[in-house]
Amino acid sequence: MARLHGVCGVRGVVGAVVWLAALSFGQGIDVVGPRPPMPGARRNWGPEQATGAPDTLEGGDRPTAWAARMPDSGPEWLQLDYDREVTIGEVRIRETCGAGAITKVTALLKDNKEVGLWEGREPPMPTPGVFAVTVDKERNVPAKSVIVYFDTTLVPGWNQIDAVQLVARDGPEQWASRATASSTYAAQGVPQASVPPTAGGKRPWGPEQATGEPDTFEAGHIPTAWAPLSRDRGAKWLQVEFPNEASAAEIAIRETCGPGTVVKVTATLKDGTEEALWEGREPGHDLPGSFVVFVPKDKEVVTRSVKIYLDSGLVAGWNEIDAVRLVAKDGTGQWASKATASSSFADRGRVLPYGGMGGVGVDPFGRPMRGYAPEQATGEPNTLEAGDRPTAWASRMPNGGPEWLKLGFGKEADVAEVRIRETNAPGAITKVSAFGKDGKEQVLWQGREPDHEFPGDFVVAVDKEKPITSKSVKVYLDTALVGGWNEIDAVRLVARDGTGQWAETATASSSYGQPGPVAVYDRFADPDGFNELGEVPVKVRLEGGQTVEGTFLRSRGEFIAIRQEDPRRTLLINKRKIVFVEVAEPPAP
């Protein structure tokens, strides 16, 4: 008998910590069974990732779960060993990506005889989730090893296991202490969980990985190529610069994972304008391999900078670029020497020291941006899902009343429209104005913003009888009108000749990304700093914008413990999920 325990549908804070909370009783925070090795001892996607308590709290391709060497390749198996032999009552298999590929579960007896516990076709379910195999009470199966069999062709993509719990018939539970597998993606040469810099000091998956000659010689999600912060999320871009100007004949884009998402390639001219070299839908090709854009022979394009636009929603999974080569009409070629991008997987979970959540892209000048700060409203839209996202501007407090966001643009324009892209809780805008050449503020629109879908644009059309030439716009909000965080991702100024430009600078009345009267703990710079807190009230900000409030108790291993209002309830939160921790009073130095 098998049953499913889906976790993906749980929303908010509970979705991030419910599994861990279920393991905690009273004041203790020790989980049942052996504690897994520290992260530095585990290979990304190695079978050892399936040992110990769950630590992969989001569905998707995560290095904290085991994955086979190749997806969609056929039969695979994962063997789990436990410290104590028990009469098996249930096997609980926690899946975090591509559930539905399990075909058989067996137990390994003392004499190495394999006994079937279940066989069939696992039904699909949301991830993270638990596929539970229950052993009939009439059967007596004493064992301390379990083998899970898969057919990875049944569910496309990666099929990943985070943890497997063995439940005895008389109730005790234990997590696996050792694991082996038919194969593992860890054998692809992916660095350890700490993901140290690659050759030349480059950050894994950073845009700088697209500079220089190709150095990614296998297809796949490899840290020696650039990858955006998220996959399957729509518009992305990579801009590369070359050492010398050249009259462009070809642009060769070497891709190493998920080709087929390039939709446009442009060259930046001396005057800073972009000239399109190609636009369309990139054809599929072998990996690693190059997509080559040919410049027509009768077209003279002198440049040293190229911008590649992608739509990551076109091809599922990671879309990665290893190198870009500019070939001149005289036949000489050069590799990119500098690169910036809309976002980078190198910045996942990064926290800037002055507070707020950072490491979520760069502004139009290549400077790193703080999460939720006003600079998140500059440049093209990069928040492609609705919700509380650090890639959009948010005021310091929700529901607090009047706020404003002021945007600066690169060039003056005869304003026809202002397009304000909102990504969370729209409806709070009350006025939009522009500043003329003389610095005077002119109201373009005032009223109550109508409801609309989000992500989506609130468009202010300028009255033709009240023309204004401007390069600065101010958006006023009353955050008390719509509950929750009212967030703006980008603002576009459209001229009467039809040309448009995204904001290059932004300031605001306040920002959730600004420094505050709180202590901020960077989980990477000071991973053990939690122990200095003591029992104080805290607010824990998690990846994805979730927040947990309560009293900090202690830190141990991979988890911190938080006591909420009910003193009987203690939450365990995985440190890998923490963006930052705020406390009422910083600990004394």
Protein traits:
1 helix, Jelly Rolls, 2% helix, mainly beta, 589 residues
Describe what you observe in this structure.
The protein is mainly β and 589 residues long. The chain has 3 domains: 158 residues, Jelly Rolls, CATH 2.60.120.260; 140 residues, Galactose-binding domain-like (Jelly Rolls, Sandwich), CATH 2.60.120.260; 153 residues, Sandwich (Jelly Rolls). The chain contains 1 helix and 32 strands. Strands 1, 2, 3, 4, 5, 6, 7, 8 and 9 form a 9-stranded antiparallel β-sheet that branches. The N and C termini lie far apart (57 Å).
Short description:
By secondary structure, the chain is mainly beta.
Report the top-level CATH class of the largest domain: Mainly Beta
- Please give the number of β-strands: 32
The general outline is globular
Low-confidence regions: 1-40, 188-199, 349-360, 362-367, 515-529, 585-589
In the residues, how many domains can be counted?
3
| Protein structure class | mainly beta
Chain-wise SSE layout:
Blueprint: E1 2-6, H1 12-21, E2 75-97, E3 102-108, E4 114-119, E5 129-134, E6 142-151, E7 160-168, E8 173-175, E9 178-181, E10 235-257, E11 262-268, E12 274-279, E13 289-294, E14 302-311, E15 320-328, E16 333-335, E17 338-341, E18 358-362, E19 368-370, E20 402-424, E21 429-435, E22 441-446, E23 456-461, E24 469-478, E25 487-495, E26 500-502, E27 505-508, E28 537-542, E29 547-556, E30 559-563, E31 570-574, E32 578-583
Antiparallel strand pairs: 1-5, 2-5, 2-6, 2-7, 2-9, 3-4, 3-6, 7-8, 10-13, 10-14, 10-15, 10-17, 11-12, 11-14, 15-16, 18-19, 20-23, 20-24, 20-25, 20-27, 21-22, 21-24, 25-26, 28-29, 28-32, 29-30, 30-31
